[in-house]
Amino acid sequence: MAHVRLPTVLRPSAGGNSSLEVNGESIREILEAISSKYPQFVSQVLTEDGELHKFVNVYLNDDDVRYLEKLETKVGTDDRISILPAVAGGME
Amino acid sequence: MLHSSILELVGDTPMVDVSNLSPNPKVKIYAKLEGQNPGGSIKDRIALNMIEEAERDGILKPGVPEQVLIEPSSGNTGIGLALVCRLKGYRLKIVLPSNVSIERKQLLQIWGAEIIESPGSEGSNGAVRLAMKLASENSSWVFLYQYANPANPMAHYQSTGPEIFRDVPDITHFVAGLGTAGTLMGVGRFLKERNPQIQLWAIEPPSGEMVDGLRSLDDGYIPPVFTDNHGAELLDRKIVVGPKESIVWTRRLLEVGVFAGISSGAIMAGAVRCASTIDEGVIVTVVCDGGWKYLSTQAWTADVDEVVEKAKSTIYF
Predict the structure, then answer these.
(1) If you placed Cys at B117, which of B98, B153, B157, B248 could pair as Cys (CB 3.0 to 4.6 Å)?
(2) Which residues contact B71 (CB under 8 A, 6 or more apart)?
(3) Interface confidence (ipTM) of the complex
(4) Is residue B285 in a domain?
């Protein structure tokens, strides 16, 4: 099972959990598995077209999946997934 | 070489071979030393270009007294602007998250900028929000807004990018930090125009505690510089580097004689990861600033875990 970390802002739509152990072979399957248990979750992370919400970043072991295979990025059993809202960087 | 103004010394920074830190003997790594800029960071380039672009547009008028600028910055852009404003006679107000290192505040004050603090827990987002509010309430103030100003990526398209390509024409990967996205968008566009095969890797700091301050996803923020330049299509890879790796690589840079700021350690960690995932290549990375402004964080002297704990609540990127 993949380990999924959720940010504070998404926890109310995921049963209050800060992390979840989820089965799924791709990022899409992982998000769908969470949504099947917590129906409010899906509208938080995906648009109506089934794409990632623009202010949501999903990382597979520190790698932003938008630059991998997006929602079709393959997930292994020991992978860490972090879902994070987009915020301004601080280097400026 | 004789110069008539310190501002002529912005840019044309040295590039140094740091391949001794490469985990892959077939991958060279070069670092561009932006800490050599007169204000001490890569941000001098955009500070100067944004101000001179505003002068060309007539938004700022050289020599006219009492012109006020306001800008959100966690440090380096503010310091760069403060230096340029001091020389050109503009007044500068910087909105700064309260949890930045003390040296950044001191440097801003040394150059004569006025500091307006925003809540540290809101990170850079909070500083941007407060600066926008103050700018809208004071219409006479000039708001350069580095996150959306085309003169930001343009500075890198016109100077940083060409310098990199001049010094390392066989570059295969460019690895840099993602803040306003100015460096990656400007340098990235220049390099891809010369050679579309060049890969762009963006390194992000962990968003850490400041993400917890977000009340809703709609408080999220993507810099207009990123979207205006089609960042999602331009970048090839984006990875997060955590505080521990950042500190470790900030220290390891000392092995090649580079005394760098902590964000540069994060970027170096990203370059090393890049080197270990490719068979062969030539990576160019950016050392954004020197380590001077971070001495108070004890990044080099204290126990690593202690520094990491502190870094989690400090803005270092």
Answers:
(1) B98
(2) B77, B78, B81, B92, B93, B94, B95, B131, B143, B144, B145, B146
(3) 0.90
(4) yes
Predicted confidence (pLDDT) per residue in B48-81, tens digit: 999 999 999 999 999 999 999 999 998 899 999 9
The alpha-carbon radius of gyration of chain A (Å, integer) is 12
Q: For A13, name the nearest residue in chain B, comparing CA atoms only.
A: B216
Across the range A2-15, mean pLDDT stands at 93
Q: Is residue B96 part of a domain?
A: yes
Q: Please give the span between the terminal C-alpha atoms of chain B, in angstroms, as a whole number.
A: 34
Residue B1 lies in a domain: no
Check pLDDT > 90 for residue B292. Answer: yes
* C-alpha span between B113 and B93 (Å, rounded): 6
Say whether residue A69 is in contact with chain B using an 8 A CB cutoff. Answer: no
Q: Which domain holds residue B165?
A: 6-36+159-312
Give the residue numbers of B annotated as catalytic, written as ranges: 43, 263
For residue B155, CA distances in Å to A80, B60, B106, B168 come to 38, 18, 26, 19
Residue of B112, B152, B146, B109 lying closest to B131 (CA atoms): B146
Residues 6+ apart with CB under 8 A from B25: none
Examine the domain organization and report whether B139 and B18 are in the same domain.
no
Residue A69 lies in a domain: yes
Chain B nearest-CA distance from A86, in A, is 5
From the CA of B181, how many Å to the nearest CA of chain A? Answer: 9
Q: Quote the pTM value.
A: 0.94
CB contact under 8 A, B178 and A64: no
Task: Spell out which residues of chain B touch residue A54, defining contact as CB-CB under 8 Å.
Answer: 220, 222
Q: Which amino acid is at A66?
A: R
Determine the distance in angstroms separating the CA of B128 from the nearest CA of chain A, rounded to an integer: 8
The answer on B215 and B126 residing in a single domain is no
Total tally of structural domains belonging to chain B: 2
What pLDDT digit, counting tens, does each position of A34-81 carry?
Answer: 999 999 999 999 999 999 998 899 999 999 999 999 999 999 999 999
Residue B251 and residue B300 in one domain: yes
Question: What confidence tier does B229 reach under pLDDT thresholds 50, 70, 90?
Answer: very high
